[in-house]
Structures are given as structure tokens and as C-alpha cells.
Amino acid sequence: MNGPMDPVDRALVEAVRRDRDQILERLSELVAVPSLTGTEEDIQELIAARMAADGLDVQRLAPDPTTVETDPDWPGSEVERSSLPIVAGSLGGGRPGPRLLLVGHVDVVPPGDLGTWATDPFDPIVRDDDLYGRGACDMKGGLVSAWAAVRALAATVPASDRCGEVVLLSVPSEEDGGQGALAAIRAGFTGDACIIPEPTRLDIVTVHAGAITFQLTVPGRAAHASVRREGVSALDVLNVLLTALREDEGRRNSAETQPLMRALGLPYPTIIGTVAGGDWASTVMDRVVVEGRYGVRAGTTASEAESELRDVIAHACEADPWLRDHPATLEITGGRFSSGQIAPEHDLPTSLADAAGAVRGRRPALIGVPYGADMRLFLNEGATPTVCFGPGDIRLAHSANERVPLDEVVECAAILAVWLRRRLHAA
Predict the structure, then answer these.
(1) Catalytic position from the list 107, 138, 176, 411
(2) N or C, where is the chain less crowded by C-beta within 10 Å?
(3) Strand 125-127 to 130-132 pairing
(4) CA dihedral 94, 95, 98, 104 (to 10 degrees)
(5) Is the same domain home to 33 and 162?
(6) Which residue range(s) make up the domain with 280?
(7) pLDDT under 70 in the chain at which residues?
């Protein structure tokens, strides 16, 4: 069923569009909960209650974070946490047929300087058909799209006309690595296909980069400012390493051959995000500590990227007279995002593009993106074909005045509903 919409497809689309007010209400309700990474308990309580009210079979998991951390594929963490709440709502569980996952994360990053926001980040407001608030784009809008799709499917297509199972999975901890998704996978939440409605402007992500975060400690030698030549400024030494990192960035990006990643121009950026050093204005700086982000190339893991980064720093230290005897130290910290990819011709992106084309009158583009996502965990650890496809523009994620177009939230839900029905159609 990959052609134009039939009457049931059209009924699904109309059901979603009639549901617009409830979609807005639910999205507003979720955005109003300040579910910062590490504090997802309240929003998961709300989601579990709402799923149950919608008639889904709800399952709640509370794995011990310290146990998850012992997993050999643990993807890192950037916050202290005492819980890892996971909620799953299923429709049609136990029936023969495919198991389809719709997965969204509920954690959001801090809003930053509130003075840069035109509205309260946790008091959602609609302007020009965009809903504003922290997490609206990344990715509560997408989670609500998936939820509305499941609701439309349950209300429009009789159980006798459906086979298999749909699982709406709500996970924490994506922003700092993805241990919520990994814990869900270890608990058995895998399937025949998975869609993660991250913000893609309704294009289909078939390949994404990854990233690792690092801390680099650079030594110098202290001296009085009046005799600065007696010292070695750690800041000057840092410049040696920054030059090496810039040259490495150029080599890695220019060598990329994957067309969708190459089209991004700079798919694997390296940045320094924080710099700390010095303790007296008239003393030559004897130590600088910087933190940064290093891109993980498509087709490689976070561990392989770490090896590449260590080689860059080691070679730079060996080539510099000061660093040769006083090498910088490198520590990998925070989230460890490997890359992920699925073949563009795979049935998942193909069937999703068919559904989108039928609903919208044009097929979405297949794209690559320069950031990490839970997609790679379901692909690599869960052996589940996975893509990202959702409403919103990633350029607005993590920003002041974050927002998502309500029209895209609704259209995404309609497309997902049609895709689900076609994959679960009981012949």
C-alpha cells in the first residue's frame, strides 16, 4: 500500500486534522513542565497518566542509573541523576505482525539567560501559529505528533483491520548521551522499524554524525609578569593545540565521501566551548583547562573518534618542544554519541517517504545531519531500522524563543498515522 491515499488513509488524515485543538493542548501541557535533563520524573508521570486515559497499554520502567552505567555500550552522561524514568504505551500488543516504535525524548536543555527570551520558556504561547517554549521543537512537538498518530489510528482503524503492535516510547536523558534509550533497548523495546520524530522539517534523516565531549588540560610555567620570558604561557601553548585541531577538522571534513554528509559542508565540526585558566593578572598562566566537542564521522563510533582525537593531541605534543616534555592531558567527558545510518533504499525510509508524499503531495528529502541522536542506539544496539522524521527546525532547538510550527506538528502526525496504518494493515 504505497500509492495514493485510499479512503481509510484519507479518514486518518482528517481525524488528525480534527484533533488539532487536542494536539495544541497536549503540546502546551508538556512544554509547561520544565523537564530538564536529570529531572524527568514529573513529565513522565503526566505522560503515563495521559497514555492510560487514551486507552494505551502503559508500561513504566525505572532502571537504576548506576546499573545502566555498567553497560559496555553506556553512552555517557553530563548530569547527576537518581532516576531514569521510561514510559511506553502500546496499541495492539500481542498480535502477530510487525512491531513499530515511535520514540521521543522528554528531557530539555536549560533555557539560559531568561532576558533573551520574549516569553517565559515554560509558559507556552502561540504566535503566528508557532508554539513557543523550551522543548517545543526539541522534541515535545515530535512526541505529540507521534502520540496523535497513534490516537488517530486507534480511533479510525478497527482492531480487526490491524495486525502487529505500535509502541509509543517516551525516554529521558537523550540530551546528555541517550542512556534512557539504551535502558529501554536493554528492556526489550526493539522492533521491526522505529521513527524518532526529532526536528527535521519533515525531511527524513538516514544518516547522522555523532560527537564526543572532551576536557584538555594544558600546562605552562608560572613567572612574574615583569619577566614573562622566564615563564611559559599555557594560553600560548593552547594555541599550538588549537592549530592542530583546526587542521585535523579540515582534513576530516574534506575527506568525507558520503554524499548526504558531504552536502553539509562541515559535518564534523570541532569546537572549544569553555576556557578556564590563570589566577592572577600579573602572573604568567601556568595552566589552562578547556572543554570542547569533537565530531564523530559517519560510519564510525565514539570510541574510534576518541582514538582519532588522542592521536591529534599526541602528535601535536610530540612536535612541540615544550609539550614534548610537558604533554597536555585529554579526558573524554559527558555524552558519547556514535554515528548512525540506514541505507536510503531501505524499506523504512522508502515507505515513510511514500506516506509523506501521499499526504503532502511531495516526497520529503533524504538528508544527513551533523549531530547525534538516539537513532544510532536503536540502529546499533537495538538492531532496529530507524530514521528521524519530525516537525520543527533544528536551528531553533536549544535557542532562546524555541518554537515549533503547529501546522508541521499536525502534518507530521497525519503522515505517521498513514505510515502506521499501511505497515499494520491486516490483509
Answers:
(1) 107
(2) C
(3) antiparallel
(4) -50
(5) yes
(6) 210-337
(7) 1-2, 426-427
The CA–CA distances, whole Å, from 97 to 93, 114, 128, 193 equal: 10, 49, 42, 12
Q: Verify that 59 and 36 share a domain, yes or no.
A: yes
CA distances from 102 to 207, 332, 386, 419 (A): 18, 31, 10, 11
Q: What pLDDT, on the 0 to 100 scale, is given for residue 1?
A: 59
Task: Give the chain's domain count.
Answer: 2
pLDDT, residue 37, reads: 97
The verdict on 201 and 333 lying in the same domain is no
Catalytic residue among 19, 130, 174, 411: 174
411 shares a domain with 305: no
Do residues 285 and 302 both lie within one domain? yes
**113 in active site:** no
Tell me, yes or no, whether 96 lies in a domain: yes
Q: What is the pLDDT of residue 399?
A: 96
- The question of whether 107 is a catalytic residue gets the answer yes
Q: Indicate which CATH number applies to the domain containing 238.
A: 3.30.70.360
* Residue 31 resides in a domain: yes
Backbone angles phi, psi at 336, to 5 degrees: -125, 95
Residues 258 and 167 in one domain: no
pLDDT digits 0-9 by tens, 5-16: 999 999 999 999
pLDDT single digits (tens) 63-92 = 999 999 999 999 999 999 999 999 999 999
How would you class 422 by CB atoms within 10 Å of its CB: exposed for 0-12, middle for 13-18, buried for 19 or more?
buried
Q: Are residues 13 and 115 in the same domain?
A: yes
What is this structure's pTM? 0.95
In a domain, residue 186? The reply is: yes
Do residues 302 and 349 both lie within one domain?
no
